[in-house]
Amino acid sequence: MLNPLQPVLILLATAVLAVVVFRLLRLPPMLGYLLAGVIIGPHALGWIAESDETRHLAEFGVVFLMFSIGLEFSLPKLIAMKRIVFGFGTAQVVISILLVMAVAWVLGLDWRVGFVLGGALAMSSTAIVIKMLAERLELNSAHGRQIIGALLLQDLMVIPMLIILPALATEIDRDTNDLLVAMLKVMIVLAIILFLGQRLMRPWLHVVARQRSSELFVLNVLLITLGLAWLTQLAGLSLALGAFLAGMLISETEYRYQVEDDIKPFRDILLGLFFVTIGMLLDIHVVVENFLWVFVILVALILAKVIVITGLSRLLCTDFSVAARTGMSLAQAGEFGFVLLAQAGSSGLIENPVLQPVLAAMVLSMLIAPFLIEYSESMMRRFYRSEWMHRAMQITSIATQTMATQDHVIICGYGRSGQSISRILEQESIPFIALDLDPQRIREATTAGESVVYGDAARREVLIAAGLMRAKVLVVSYADTVSALKILRYVQELRPELSVVVRTHDDSNIDILKEAGATEVVAEIMEGSLMLASHALMFVDISTGRILRRIKKIREQRYNLLRGFYYGVTDEVDDGSEKIFPRLLTITLIPGAAAINKTLGDIDLTSLAVEVTAVRRRNIRGLLPTSETRLEAGDVMVLKGTQENLAAAEMKLLQG
């Protein structure tokens, strides 16, 4: 007898392995789930048989996905983007469906099959596209706003599609009646749920929240979600519609974000299982036998969506490069396409010989999507002159503002942290240039006369235009590890001796950033903890001096470059006495320098009261120096000492 735990273990082990591999490749985990389903499914290794139990669990994944979309549903956001969402987005979905229906008619397929396939292929992957745009800091760009508008409309279109599907699966002579009955049911159910729900939801959530029980709150959310899903299914509609309505009702309350955090683990796990079951539907043998059809569908899908979306975007009077990048970003299939095909397949509306090649083409299009998005900009610059001219004008504008600047600080990001840094630099009369991607923020800052320009700091040409080769320090003021790693890569390529200070949210990425070339990494959680601890100690009658010494000791252990910077911190310091305090000096060992091939012990800079805090080398970055560290040509040494002692140390290192 088969152990009932065995299929679960197989499912979990395969899913975990596939997701780990795809995360290492920086691809969406959803693709890992799909691959896991293909491998262990009944059409490949056959480790797990397709059953009603797995299908029911998969339906719960769709339920929680639709609930999340309901939570994100925002009427004000829709109104603000109405031209893009209801104009551009609706036209894209409708034209895509009509095109597929025309092709289906030519191939002799039923119009209902063409309608469902058109709806499925019209969808794009919200998970892949939003993730890629966020990593590339393009959510607020011209093409980013169009993409978000189109994805928002596609998500909303899933609801009527799921309502219409059961009616389409019935006999042809009952289509009209079933559609009318379905629409009548929808109106009645919507009226009841929205009318009563809006009046009951907030008071009931208040009652539950006042109990101050997290498990009760989560149970209540599950009850509301599954209860409304059950009601809509009872009315002959889909579970997904009820879940969407539950999310929409909760989104109107102040508990929206708490609910979103609580429901996320359930949603992600069950949604992952749904994609595993989709992968199990894919019959590799049928795909191989129909490889030509899979290839044709894949190419037609990508080309048709690029052409349709680019053309519609141009009708909005956008630049061709923006329109083309929008088209390439939305050219793939999406997760909701699988939802629609799974429903159509289970109802018998689409036969397996038609379903399999389409499923395969959709999966392949999603695998190709990250590469299309990644290289869309470089393709536009290569083939479209105005995009290159636009970039050139942007770079020229940045270079013009920094041309006369020397020994300045480059601030990457002009949010709250970047603005705080700039205020301190202004007080010390230190020149700086800030790079940011928020047009409104830049407009307001430049109107106030601040040195801020529009530019993506994670681009090589922008950093060069900002005066990277002449800068004294570069600061990454936003906590985005992916973007920071790109910046560090360009700095190491162009000017490895430049000091780079990087902000990060916590300690988890410190080693990665230091290995990439960061001189220092500041974890905001740690700094916040230090401030909290210092204030707490003040209220338990610990002296100010003792508190400062404690904080100093912790910072010395954490930040290599700050060691020794807090001597006499409780004393008054006159302006003329600053020379006695230690400071940092960066020295590059040029070919022929006296210190090359010598160890730090041989040079003995401690006799000059100078400390070597770091040695940076192109292949070994963030090297912690010891007396046995042997110096090489091109090494960048970070020294700490008084001004006079540093001058003597520099002479000893270079001239002997």
Description:
The chain is an alpha/beta fold and 656 residues long. It folds into three domains: 5-382, Na+/H+ antiporter like fold, CATH 1.20.1530.20; 409-540, Rossmann fold (3-Layer(aba) Sandwich); 579-655, Alpha-Beta Plaits (2-Layer Sandwich). 65% of the residues lie in helices and 7% in strands. The strands form two sheets. A six-stranded parallel sheet has the order 3-2-1-4-5-6, with helices on both faces. It has a three-stranded antiparallel sheet with strand order 7-9-8. α14 (291-315) crosses α17 and α15 runs antiparallel to α18.
What labels describe this entry?
about 650 residues, alpha/beta, Na+/H+ antiporter like fold, Rossmann fold, Alpha-Beta Plaits, 3 domains, six-stranded parallel sheet, 9 strands, about 65% helix, elongated
What would the principal axes of the Cα set say about the shape?
elongated
- The radius of gyration computed from the alpha-carbon positions, rounded to a whole number of angstroms, is 30 Å
Sequence of strands across the biggest β-sheet: 3-2-1-4-5-6
What's the structural domain tally? 3
CATH topology value of the largest domain: Na+/H+ antiporter like fold
| End-to-end CA span | 82 Å
